[in-house]
Amino acid sequence: MLLFTTKIVGWKFQSLKPLLSYYKNTYCLARALSVNVNVVxxxxxxxxxxxxxxxxxxxxxxxxxxxxxxxxxxxxPSIVVWPQSVGExxxxxxxxxxxxxxxxxxxxxxxxxxxxxxxGPSVSINLTKLNEITDLHLDDFDVKAQPGVTRKQLNYDxxxxxxxxxxxxxxxxxxxxxxxxGASGTNAVRYGTxxxxxxxxxxxxxxxxxxxxxxxxxxxKKSSAGYNLTELFIGxxxxxGFITSATLRLHGQPEMTKSAVCSFPTIMDAVNTAMxxxxxxxxxxxxxxxxxxxxxAVNNYSHLTHPEMPHLFLExxxxxxxxxxxxxxxxxxxxxxxxxxxxxxxxQEEHNxxxxxxxxxxxxxxxxxxxSTAISTDACVPVSALxxxxxxxxxxxxxxxxxxxxxxxxxxxxxxxxxxxxxxxxKLVESLTKAIxxxxxxxxxxxxxxxxxxxxxxxxxxxEVGEKTxxxxxxxxxxFDPLGLMNPxxxxx
Length: 493
Ligand SMILES: Cc1cc2c(cc1C)N(C[C@H](O)[C@H](O)[C@H](O)COP(=O)(O)OP(=O)(O)OC[C@H]1O[C@@H](n3cnc4c(N)ncnc43)[C@H](O)[C@@H]1O)c1[nH]c(=O)[nH]c(=O)c1N2
Ligand SMILES: CC(C)CC(=O)C(=O)O
Ligand SMILES: [Mn+2]
Hints:
It comes from Clavelina lepadiformis (Light-bulb sea squirt). The chain is built from 18 helices and 20 strands. With 493 residues, it is of the alpha+beta class.
């Protein structure tokens, strides 16, 4: 722990007592003050640092910032701060650098790999107060969003423009957080992931430097100008710097949207259908696999009545003519793989319910055993290897005797194997998830298609990219963050 050496205006170090008793829960503040932050005043029950704009907070708020939606639980942040502008992000970064204090960018905390969880004394920097949508160019299909803007908020604002932002992880995550994790989700098969949908990023480095990865004001669809620093930041998980705005590529809202579900006797019939749809180049917008266990979960949690069999949830976008053609071709392929008739979402309400149920699957899984811990893998393989990867995972899951299932964005070759973890099963679960990651790597794929490396997948990163590439990645990190203050303990061990 660093020594407490900084100036305290209004509250002298010697007079910590009144400050501590000011708080119902002194634990958090004691931790906050045991690290080097400039506590300059106390107002409204909150201790403020750097001119009262950024607040150190209660134990409850530190707890809230200590984890995401995954099972990873480590330490609480020493302090949480809310910069109100890009300049203030830079100021906080400079302050943390001056005191060699680790910094963790915090978006909406919906991550699945423990990315926001502190591994040592650190400042959690909540970026949600920066929440402007600017620079909307309707003719060019692009817009700029700050870190507090979530994908739902952006699409709500765009609703009357005829444009939308399609990357959809289900959760209402911040768009800059989605860039930081390289997120994708259900629409990626047609519209791509964050990688294909970010044109430029404004970032703040650990030393407070503010820059644009593609150069200020750049928003062109392509560029060969030097290194692609924008892509470097996508999936960087807060280890290179703060993303303080993202220039995003927009798409035209589809003229027609049609959603349906189709059941199959076996999971392999569903997977083969997905593979053949892609091999026929049908421009399907969503193609989501839910195995029997996943269907049980959505039926229970979202009050649905699908037959307890493997399913594909499908969506088609286009004109009446083109969706009609896509539907006919898809139905034919499904039929050849013993798929059922399509059950259509007839109304907007049914459509919303169907996709909300899919998006809530993680909570539906957790509801199998309320209060339990759930873990999910995130393997992604070339589509032609999907059947082998999924049958391997299904066999392992079966052998393990664990409660779990498989779901996936199968159009991208990406699937999640989820399990409920009982107290004495940690080792078993670890070996299962590791084996699934390794198999994906062996098949030419990755241990993480969209959630990131975070904490849990660090050992697999080396296996996936190799020692030399890992070394180069570390050297790149070092050139952005020489003191290793940006989100330490994530991505690299
Ligand atoms: C129910 C459910 C379902 C899904 C998912 C979550 C949940 C709860 N996710 C995962 C999650 O929504 C996704 O990882 C988001 O991109 C995380 O965005 P947050 O803003 O919540 O980042 P969060 O605050 O959780 O941070 C995640 C990481 O990014 C860093 N970070 C956040 N904001 C940053 C910024 N502005 N600058 C620099 N670093 C920053 C953090 O430091 C951390 O390392 C997902 N994902 C997916 O890709 N596909 C999916 O299908 C799903 N599905
Ligand atoms: C199942 C979860 C792990 C979240 C996710 O990525 C999804 O629902 O697709
Ligand atoms: Mn997913």
